[in-house]
Amino acid sequence: MLGFLKQPLVVRADINLNVVALTGMGLLSRLWGLTYPRAVVFDEVYYGQYISLYMKRVFFLDGSGPPLGHMLLALGGYLGGFDGNFLWNRIGAEYSSNVPVWSLRLLPALAGAFSVPMAYQIVLELRFSHCAAMGAALLMLIENALITQSRLILLEALLIFFNLLSVLCYLKFSNLQQHSPFSLSWWFWLVLTGVACSCTVGIKYMGVFTYLLVLSVAAAHAWHLVGDQTLSNACVCCHLLARAVALLVIPALMYLLFFYIHLILLFRSGPHDQVMSSAFQASLEGGLARITRGQPLEVAYGSQVTLKSVFGKPVPCWLHSHQSTYPMIYENGRGSSHQQQVTCYPFKDVNNWWIVKDPGRHQLVVSNPPRPIRHGDTVQLVHGMTARLLNTHDVAAPLSPHAQEVSCYVDHNISMPAQNLWRLEIVNRDTDRDVWKTIMSEVRFVHVNTSAILKLSGAHLPDWGFRQLEVVGEKLSRGFHESTVWNVEEHRYGKSQEQRERELELHSPIQVDVNRNLSFMARFSELQWRMLTLRTDDSEHKYSSTPLEWVTLDTNIAYWLHPKSSAQIHLLGNVVIWASASLATVTYALLFLWYLLRRRRNACDLPEDDWLRWVLAGSLCCGGWAVNYLPFFLMEKTLFLYHYLPALTFQIILLPVVLQHVGDHLCRSQLQRSVFSALVVAWYSSACHVFSTLRPLTYGDTSLSPSELRALRWKDSWDILIRKY
């Protein structure tokens, strides 16, 4: 029974020294002098703000991508003991002693370092030579822009790492498919492919394109699998089910997990939650939660409420009125009702309070027991501070003449009777008898007389309207839109019938004692929608560029300049590698088309195995370049050179693949192969020389003279900073 103890326990491991050496060199190139400069470098000023908010558990909204990338950067701060106390307001600002610079920059640096041996592994899994694999890794090692980007608190290195990991894991799984399907390692690499793809998407939305590329290749392989007559129907179904679970279900669950952790961490109210719904804000600790806690849930006749526009654009605002009236005549010559203005005001104010009145009664207090308002009920809205009723009539709105003016009715003793009845419609109701609920119910107010719907037009009124937002009665039915939807944010049961007492009541704070929470899925859905629809600042930047400028490296970015010397850091690529990578992509495309036309004529220049290997390499590398580059031509946002780096990595991996193909299949004689090999060595030496020459701008640790800096300006479009002493 214990016979196994008679023999020594032996563990054998195959160690690829190439991988070990490449990993070591990658770590050295990315980690060396990582804390230099100890100052905010370019977009560190942007990501650092979110790291501080994570450290303080304060909610924020960033439309640049899902939260995984931000959380990984924040993890570095957490491991370094960062307390979040640093003002990220200026590029070049010196980091204070409490900022763990090395720890914050560590994870991007590790991602950049491990991308080097990963490129080696990908070329091997594509079944090309060790020499080609070493070439891909060494090119990744000495590419200046990749080094610069991975040594800072930025996301591109993490995105590239997970891009490559997704491709590598799928290739390992695909190769195991041929001889050991459903083995433990087969399952491991398949599941890890799904996890890596979800991480790719979780870093930045651009990762979706790499995920779709992997899915496309997997779908093509699955289609061939379906046609394999040696497999039973049950076996084929098992294969398809395994791929669906690993590549579709697991990434979806992982994506939800990222947001779950994000929302668990950020539980405090902050400056960014104003764009979220009232229900979302009330689920955060502090802020609106302090105000809304303990409010009555059901809105009843006599309730005092503030009504917030669900649309929240151009800014979050509340239905508002004040003593001022519309001008008798507008600047364009049109007339108004000259009644009390009704607007949408983007700040908390006592004039945002309204009383929900029963049209059949005069009382403005909640009865005992309260009479809750339901979907379809008719109400009047009385402005709390002026006691005038919300009204609309057949008068054109000031800035939206196709819609009706909304006002608080003033009796001017003219032939314009009050029209102040509104029918309540609960948009998110479950049944037609649902009760109007605080925060949770999204409602529309339909004018009984004209069927106009109370709507936020979003236009800013002129000075006579104090630049507040226009509210109109929209008569033209154009389907559902959030600009016609409102929700009760603050709510209390009115107790004062007299106007003077009621004004004092409206000025008094609400007592708080109870909390309400949204479900995770409700919070996730709202946050995801806000992120996708959030408008970013698309203004021009000094270092913004176009996708066409990236390929030819006609642009650069000055990341940092030493405050006293000429030492500086630039995002500037290795021109030999960039030009060669683009040339390799064009060469591959031309050769692929040539082989395809020849095969159509039954002239097979490549053996079938070589052809399939060539096609797979192009699908992943050329495809990876295309899906990470071409979408930028359709994007209306400010673009920078670093957006090209994920696409560049796929080109770099393709480059030695094309070189090996030329050497193996296009060089016919031994002399041609020898000459070609010598040219490749000379070419790589020139790439190393460029890396060494640009190194001072990559690491920023060397102060160069003005003449030396001018010598590095190889293109007129490069902005090399030269101090004037």
Can you give a write-up of this model?
The structure is a single chain. The chain has 725 residues and is an alpha+beta fold. The chain contains 20 helices and 14 strands. The protein has helices at residues 17-31, 44-55, 68-79, 101-125, 130-141, 144-150, 156-177, 184-203, 207-226, 233-265, 278-282, 288-292, 499-507, 520-533, 547-551, 575-600, 608-629, 645-666, 670-699, 706-711, and strands at residues 303-309, 318-325, 340-345, 353-357, 378-383, 390-396, 404-408, 422-426, 443-447, 453-460, 469-474, 486-493, 557-561, 568-571. The strands form three sheets. A six-stranded antiparallel beta sheet has the order 9-8-5-4-1-12, with no helix packed on it. Strands 2, 3, 6, 7, 10 and 11 form a six-stranded antiparallel beta sheet that branches. Strand 10 and strand 11 form a beta hairpin. Helix 4 (101-125) packs parallel to helix 7 (156-177). The radius of gyration is 32 Å and the shape is elongated. The model is unreliable at 510-515 (pLDDT under 50).
Please state the oligomeric state of the protein chains shown.
Answer: single chain
Total helical elements: 20
Helix content: 40-55%
Question: How many angstroms separate the termini?
Answer: 85 Å
Report the sheet with the most strands, covering strand number, pairing sense and barrel closure.
6 strands, antiparallel
- Strand order in the largest sheet: 9-8-5-4-1-12
Q: What is Rg?
A: 32 Å
Beta percentage is 5-15%
Structural class: alpha+beta
Poorly predicted sequence stretches spanning 5 or more consecutive residues: 510-515
